[in-house]
UniProtKB/TrEMBL annotation, chain A:
Superkingdom of the source species: Bacteria
Organism of provenance: Algoriphagus antarcticus
Protein name: Type 1 periplasmic binding fold superfamily protein
Automatic annotation (TrEMBL), chain B:
Highest classification ranks of the organism: Bacteria, Pseudomonadati, Bacteroidota, Cytophagia, Cytophagales
Gene3D superfamilies linked: Carboxypeptidase-like, regulatory domain, TonB-dependent receptor, beta-barrel domain, TonB-dependent receptor, plug domain
Residue stretches making up the TonB-dependent receptor-like beta-barrel domain: 369-750
Subcellular location: Cell outer membrane
Designated name of the protein: Iron complex outermembrane receptor protein
Main location: membrane
GO biological process: siderophore transmembrane transport
Transmembrane stretches, start-end: 7-29
Amino acid sequence: MNSDQFKKQLPILNNPTMFNSRKIFLYAILFAAFTFTACESDDPEPENDGEVITDVILNFQELDASGNPVGAVSSFSASDPQGIEVGATPTIETVELTKGKTYQLNIEVRNSIENEDITEEILEEADEHQFYFLGTAFVGSPILTYQYDDLSGELIGVQGILTVQQNPGFNNANMQIILRHDLDKNYPGASNPNFQEYAMAGGESDLDITFPVVVE
Amino acid sequence: MLVNNSNVYYFCIVNLKTPILLTLILLLGHKIQAQNCNLSIRGKIIHLENNEPIEAAYVWVIEAEEGAVSDKNGNFTIKNLCSGTYTLTIQYLGHKEIRDTVTLESGTFTKTYRLEEVALGLKSVEVHGHRDAVQTTTAVSALYGEKLLESRGENLGESLKRISGVSTFSTGNSISKPVIHGMHSNRIMIMNNGIRLEGQQWGAEHAPEIDPFLADEITVVKGAETVRYGPEAMGGVILVNPAPLPTKKTSKTSLNLVGGTNGQMGNINLVYVGGSHKIKGLGYRIQSSAKRSGNVKSPGYFQDNTGVSELNLSSSLGYSSSKLGVEAYYSLFHTELGILNDSHTGNLSDLENIIENGRPFADGEFSYEIANPKQRVTHHLAKLKSHYHISESWKLNFQYGFQLNHRQEFDKRRGDLNEKASLDLELFTNTIDLYVNHTHKNELSGTWGINLIQQANSNVPGTGVTPLIPNYDMVNTGLYAMEKYSKGPLEVEAGVRYDFRNVSTARYINQELRTADLDYQNFSAFLGGLYHISPDLTFNSNIGSAWRPPNVNELFSEGLHHGAAAVEIGNSDLKSEKSLKWINELQYDGKRTHLELTAYLNPISDYIFLNPTGEVFVSLRGTFNVYEYLQANALFYGFDFAGSYEFTDKISAYLKGSIVQAKNRDEDNYFPFIPANRMDWGVSYDFAKGTDSRTNKITLSNVLVAKQNREPDFDIAPAPPAYALFNISYNKQLIIGDDKLNLGLQVQNLFNTSYKDYMNRFRYFSYDMGRNVLLKINYEF
C-alpha cells in the first residue's frame, strides 16, 4: 500500500477535523467506567494449615538384654491443638521412665487439623531432617543416653535407643527434643544426638519441645 | 532631593550598556526632579499549557531598548528603568509573541507571562534536558541525565539514595524500599508514569514493583502531597517518568548493558522510540530489560540464595494534536528473588543463635540458583490518558489505570508444600482521574478533580497457611481543588481535598469466617509558596496536612513472620494517621556553587507502628516474640543538605547528607528503623578540555553512616557500628557519528569493608555486600 492509498483509507489523515476529539474522549471515559465496576475480591476459602504440627508423641517400648520388646508401649505426648495461635500454650506430659532400663523410642509427629502423619514426610526427606536430644537429662553424668537407630540407617531420630542409668544422680530432669530442618548433616559433630551446637550446622527448628522427665 | 539625584546617578552609572541613556538621564536628572530611574520590571515566563517555566525566552522593552533573557526558572529582570509607559515584547520559538503595555510609576513591576504554543509545520528546535515533572511549590529533587546513567543496574531504592534525604529500608541486597525523611512503604507514594503504584507495599520485604529503566527521570517530592495524589502521600512522592513521546518523525534506540562482579550480575535494557511520519503527532516507545544475578558476596563468604531474576517490559503509544492528546501505556514487572537462607528462622532460639553468630553459619558458594525461601512477583500496569482543550484556557483531563499485582512467597516447607507458595495474593486496582486545568493570561491557574480508586485483594486458595491478610475490597473517592497564584518571582499555592474510603474484609481463621466493614474519611489541605529572591536564590515553604487510613495488615495481621521469629497481631480498632508536614527549602544556583538546604517538621498523630509486647508465644515449634500494632503521637523532624562547588574547570567537589529524628512523644522514646545520620562527599576531576561537552570524569566518593544512637527501647540486636565506604567511578562519553556511547566503570566498596547498615533488616543475619566492580555501557543510536 503506497501512502496515497493509506490516506484514502484513513480520512483522518486528510482531514483532521473528522477526528472527533470530544467523542473519543467520552468513549475513553465510558470504557473505563465499565472496567472499574468489573472487579471484586474472591470469596475467602478456609485454609488448612498443612505445615502445623499439633501433636508429638513419644512411644517408649521397653527392650530386654537381647533387644526384644518387653511389655506394652508407654506413650507421652505434647499437643497444641491450634498449632500457632497466640494465647494458647502447648500441653506437655511428663515422661516417666524406669532406672536401668533400655527403651526403643519412636517419635510420632502429627497434624491433627489435617489428620496427617508428618512422621512419614520426615522419613521421606530423611536427608533434610534430624532430631537432637538435649536438656539436663543428657548432660554432666547423664541419666539418659540416646543413640540413633533408624530403620534406613540414616541418622534421623524417628527411631532410637534410649538407656536410663542404673544409679542416676537425680530423678528429675528435662529432655529437650529439637527437630532440625535443612541442616548440613556432614557438619562436624552433627552426628552426635546430643550436639549442643546444632545451630552451627545451619537449617531451622521445626520442633523445640522440652519434656519433664521423672526417673523411678 | 539631593539624595534622589545621587540615587539616579548611582543606578545609571552601573548600567554601562546604555551610555547614551545614562548621559540623557544625568542631564534630565537635574532638571526633572520627579523622574525616578531605579525602577525595574521583573517577570516570569511559563508555558500556558502546563505552567512549566520557559528558559531563554527573549524580553525586549521597546522604548528603553533594554532586553533580557529568562533564566531556567523562567525569571527575568530589567533594571534601571525610569517611570513611564513601556511596551514589552516577549518572544520564544514556536510560541505566540506577547506584547504588553506596562506603566512604571514606582518600585518594581512584576507579572507572569504565559506563552501559548503555536502549531508549527516543523519543529526545528527540540529542547532537550530536564523539566520538572511536577509543578509544585514544595521541595523537589530529581535524578536524571548523567546521575541516572550512573545509577543504571540498581533497583529503585538504591538509585534514589543519590538524592539527599532519601535512604532505603532493605531486606538484604535485592529488596530495598525508598525512605523519604524517615517514611516508607504506605507512607510514601510511587507513581509509575502518572499512575499510583498499587502493590503489596505494606510489607517490609516487599520492594516496589517497578523497573527504573522505564524512566528517563525520577523525581522525589519531599513534601506532603496528599491533595494532589491522594491519601498515603504523607511522607513524599516518587515519580518515575518516561520521556515524553515524540510528536514528529524520529527514530532512536538506546541500549544499556551493565555487568557487576559481585553476584556476577548482568543487566540489559533496550529502548526504541519512534515518531510516525504518516500520522502527525503519533509517537511510540517500547522498552524491555532483563536482569540476572547470583549469590552476592560479603567480605569472606557468599550469602546463600540471594540471586535475582528480573524481566520487565513497557510500551506506550501516543497521539497529540492541538486539541486532543491520547496516550496508552503498559508496563510489566516480573521478578523472582531468593531470600538469604539463614534468615529463615524456625523460632526465637534460632534467631538468637544467628544474631550471636553475626553472619550465616555456612560460607556458601556462588550459584545462580534461586531456591526457597523466595519471592515471585508479577505486576501489570495499563493506563489510558487523554486530555482535551475545551478552550484556550481550560483543559479536561482523564486518566484510567488498571493494575494487577500477583505476589507469591515461598517458604522452606516439607514435601509437596515446598512447591506451593505460602503467601499468594492477587491484587486488582482500578484508578480513575478526571480533572480540569485552567490557565489564564492572568495570575491564577488551578486544577479541580475527582479521583477514584477501587481495589480487590484475594488470597489464592491452596497455600496451606491461614492468610496473613484477609481478602478485601476497597473503594476510595477523592475530590480536590488547587489554585496557584503567580506574580513575577512569587508563587503561592493552596489546595483542599476530601476523601472517603470503605474497606470490607473477609477471611477464615480456624474454619471460622471473620468479616469487617470499615469507613474512613478525611479532609486534607496545603499551602505553599515559592519566592525567587534573586535569579540565583530561591526559597520555598510548604505546609500540608495528610492522612493515611490504617492498612489491612495493620488491622488484621495474624501470623508468623519467619524472618523475625515473631507473631504479628493486627488491631481492627486503629484510627487513621493524621500528619502535618512543614517543609522549607533554600536553593542557590550560582556559577560555581550549587546549594540546597531542606528543613522539615512533621508531627503525626496516631502514628501506627509495630511494637514488641515483650511477651513470648510458646508453641511446639519453640518460642516467638509477639508484636502488636499500636498508635502514638510522633514527631519527625530533620534536615537535608546538598551542595557542590567547582574549584577550577577541572576539579569539583560535592557534599550531601541528612539527619532524621523520629520520636514517640507519648513514651518519649524512638521508633525503630529510622535512618541514621549519613553523609556522602566526593571529588571529581574532569579530563575534558575547554568547551568539550563530552563527559570524561573520574570521581572518588566517600559515604559515611553514623551509628543509630536513637534506638528504640527494644530491638532483637543493637544498632550496628558506624561505617565508611569508598567508591570510585570513571565516566566517559564518545561521539561516533550521530551516535553516543557512554562508558562507566565503578568500584563500590573499594576496600571490601565489612559493615552492617541499621536500615537493612538482614543486619541481624549477615554483613552487607562486599566490593563490586561494575561496567556500564550505554549506546544511543
